Amino acid sequence: MKRVVPSDLDDVRAFLRLQPNRAMFPLSNLHRFGLDGAAPYAVSMWMSKVAGQVTGVLSVTRSGTVMPNLPEADLDSARDILRETDISGIIGPADIARPLADRLGLSGRSATLDRDEPHFTLDLKDLQCPDGPATLHPLGTADPEEMIRWRVAYCREALHMSPEQAQRQGEVDHDTYIAADSHRVLMQGGKALAMTGFNASLPDIVQVGGVFTPPELRGQGHARRALALHLIEARARGVTEATLFSASDAAAGAYRGIGFRQIGLWTLLLFETPQRITP
């Protein structure tokens, strides 16, 4: 595998675009932060080619998250590339993320999150929106203290963060989401019912992330209506596809209820502290 340079990016994007729902994080991070940038989520990339065609891409954020879109034949090369890297996590399709973790000797290391979640996709022409009186609003129109509490609760529940880490992350995320205009709140009569958002976006496809309903309001269809309305908004600006992975059976049922279908499993392996691969 060779290090990707700017002149390679058209070929790299074309390869990742063959299955964009498996590559939204590297595609979106590349779009937002550029190649080899200084931001925590900026990516460095390596690629393999056969007969002049890209066959695999390894992406690593500046903060140490590894995102593989590789054939298994490239795992030894990926191991050589990552030998001196402080790895904070591995995320991606389970059919390659898990073999990579094994090849790096990182399976079973102490992690804050280590699970495979159902991975879904939806052609937005097949979207089904539940009826209801509640309407969707930008995150910045809701009470900021309440929204930060929700995000902290999400970080604790879905990402298994410590209380202190979740509080810090929740505050940062709230400001980031407002600046990016990436998240929405379902409201009725001034009362916030559910939050939804996109954690990766391209002109024609979005990846859903951060869907949350407080426990006392669950089971009433708020999350599915919030997400459906947000996807209708995205569809109106030209988005044709959405993808996501689900943290619970209840959430998966809600997603299926508006038209999502499962296409595989998605690995989230986030280490408690950065790891080096086994020599």
Automatic annotation (TrEMBL):
Pfam families: Acetyltransf_1
Transmembrane stretches, start-end: none
Keyword terms: Transferase
UniProt cross-references to InterPro entries, sorted A to Z: Acyl_CoA_acyltransferase, GNAT_dom
Domain N-acetyltransferase residues, every copy: 134-278
PROSITE patterns noted in UniProt: GNAT (PS51186)
Protein name in UniProt: N-acetyltransferase
